[in-house]
Amino acid sequence: MKNLPRFLVIPAVLLVWELVTRAIGDPDFPPPTTIVARMYELWFSGPVSRVFLTDDAIANILPSLGRMFGGWVLAALIGILAGMLLGARARRPTSWTR
Question: What is the pTM of this model?
Answer without folding.
Answer: 0.56
